[in-house]
Design goal:
The chain is about 30% helix and about 25% strand. By secondary structure, the chain is an alpha/beta fold.
């Protein structure tokens, strides 16, 4: 959880985000409800912040969404230089409650989004964020994998840490559908992906490492690796290099986590404007 030692720091954050008075008050409510569970019982489950630069976000009073707010809109983990070619198609694997989708939609206003999210904890807020901001996006209630089918999703008390891999933080599990990237592309009518954002808590090991010929049709990728599931950044780099990707590590790998990275496919030749092709 973000540590603010005095109200002045929250005020500075609100100024940095450009919040008006109502949203600033909600920011304080979010923070103090996260710090004091007794207050959370008296507060709504979620509160809306209106970010002038980006749009409206709906955050839970659990503290974890406030961390994501800081990562995405203050630290700007998904900041990308505008590429020479327009970005028309964005696949958001691990869309969570839609903050990264909203951020990227402002960077690339011409883009259409496919948002993949398996967790019931997140789906209602994801849909609300997309609706509040009238984003061109389709939601897929599924986990991403290398084969179609179903898989066990372990639910965490931290709603951004749900994973197909069991952990000490898991509070239960549910069965969820599995979709492959080629199937998502088929349903979207895409023959290529301009930008792939991937943050799926270790499942990138399957998505990027197995049955991955579709990566030849991806132009830009940004996401996270998770060394705790045996898929370190070096292996991500190796798997993607075979498709022409040159990666840049944004946040260095740690022993219990992984790395944040982005990269471009130097061999990509598609325009993203042609009808969908058959992919395997």
């Amino acid at each position: 959880m973000i540590s603010f030692h005095q109200p002045l720091e929250l005020w500075r954050l609100s100024r940095r985000l450009g919040l008006g008075i109502p949203s600033t008050m909600n920011l304080y409510r979010l923070y103090y409800c996260a710090r004091r569970p007794a207050l959370r019982k008296l507060a709504p489950d979620s509160l809306v912040l209106d970010l002038p630069r980006w749009g409206k976000v709906n955050l839970r009073t659990n503290g974890h969404d406030l961390n994501l707010l800081h990562q995405i809109f203050v630290r700007e983990d998904y900041r990308l230089d505008v590429p020479e070619q327009p970005v028309h198609r964005v696949l958001d694997l691990g869309a969570n409650i839609g903050m990264a989708t909203l951020y990227l939609a402002k960077l690339f206003p011409e883009a259409e989004f496919a948002c993949v999210e398996p967790s019931p904890q997140n789906l209602s807020l994801l849909r609300r964020t997309l609706e509040m901001n009238q984003l061109r996006a389709r939601v897929f209630e599924a986990a991403a994998g290398s084969e179609p089918g179903e898989i066990q999703l372990y639910l965490s008390s931290q709603p951004d840490c749900n994973s197909i891999y069991a952990s000490a933080q898991a509070s239960g599990s549910i069965q969820v559908p599995l979709l492959t990237v080629p199937e998502i592309m088929r349903q979207m009518g895409w023959d290529s992906i301009d930008l792939l954002k991937i943050d799926i808590e270790g499942a990138e090991r399957l998505v990027l490492g197995e049955n991955n010929s579709w990566l030849a049709r991806v132009r830009i990728i940004t996401g996270e690796s998770h060394v705790n599931v045996g898929y370190p950044y070096a292996q991500v780099e190796k798997d993607l290099a075979s498709f022409g990707f040159v990666l840049e590590s944004l946040i260095p790998e740690t022993a219990d986590y992984g790395a944040s990275f982005r990269g471009a496919n130097s061999r990509f030749t598609g325009t993203g404007q042609t009808p969908a092709a058959t992919l395997k």
